[in-house]
Amino acid sequence: MQMNQIIEGDSAKVLEQLPEGSIDLVVTDPPYLVNYRDRTGRSLQNDDNAGGVMPVFAPMARAMKRDSYAVCFAGWSALPQFTAAWEAAGLRIVSQIIWQKQYASRKGFTEYRHESAYVLAKGNPAKPAHPLPSVMDWVYSGNRSHPTEKAVDILAPLIRCFSKQGDLVCDLFSGSGSTSVAAALTGGRISASTLTRHMCAPRRRVLRALVDSKQSKSLRELEERNYNDL
Predict the structure, then answer these.
(1) What is the pTM of this model?
(2) Judging by DSSP bridges, how do beta strands 5-8 and 114-122 pair with one another?
(3) What is the pLDDT of residue 225?
(4) How far are the Cα atoms of 25, 97, 113, 187, 212 from residue 85, in angstroms, in the given order?
């Protein structure tokens, strides 16, 4: 399987190309199963279809190395489904990370002012040498190419904390491609898949430029250039 690329395809099938026990770290942001639409009407594929999300976790766990981590974003409303799928795949929750927002992304019974991710363990990985806080400030991405785009500044600390340079980082729901760029900036290799090629097009070009140049200082310039080319 080719590395340092964002592959268009079904993640469960893409994972079949990876040898068992080859992934050092998974950082991924699957649909929350809430049928979300943003203010402009954009939606997420499979956000109303658990059958398009949950079957990915078993092959993901197979491809993960023994004693390794996965960091998976998830919302509270479908947490029982996610938890059941993780447990069936042999993964256990070892921590939760909350990012607090300065704005409400939605309003219901309460204002939604946070994002959350769950730290999952396969086996018994070593604890990080420099653990992250369990509550951090949110960095807004602007959601320019994807309705739930995560900022590189949110994802890069996760990769630095739970992996080392040269590790293979995998994102199974790549969306805008932010995880791939974050992995390239932190010295990791990336294997990512997406069903939405048009949404990750700018970050695909940024990733290619970063891999080719081996330079991280030009990230913002590269991102602006590639978004403006749309």
Answers:
(1) 0.83
(2) unpaired
(3) 44
(4) 18, 19, 26, 30, 37
Question: Residue 119's beta-bridge partner residues?
Answer: 71, 95
Rounded to whole angstroms, the Cα distance separating 90 from 69 reads: 12
Measured between its terminal Cα atoms, the distance across the chain in Å is 28
pLDDT at 11: 81
Low-confidence stretches of the chain (pLDDT < 70) are: 1-6, 43, 143, 191-230
Sign of CA dihedral 66, 185, 145, 102: positive
pLDDT of residue 208: 55
Q: Which DSSP string corresponds to 161-183?
A: HH--TT-EEEESS-TT-HHHHHH
Residue 212, H or E segment: helix 201-213
Q: Which residue has the tokens 């002012």?
A: 113
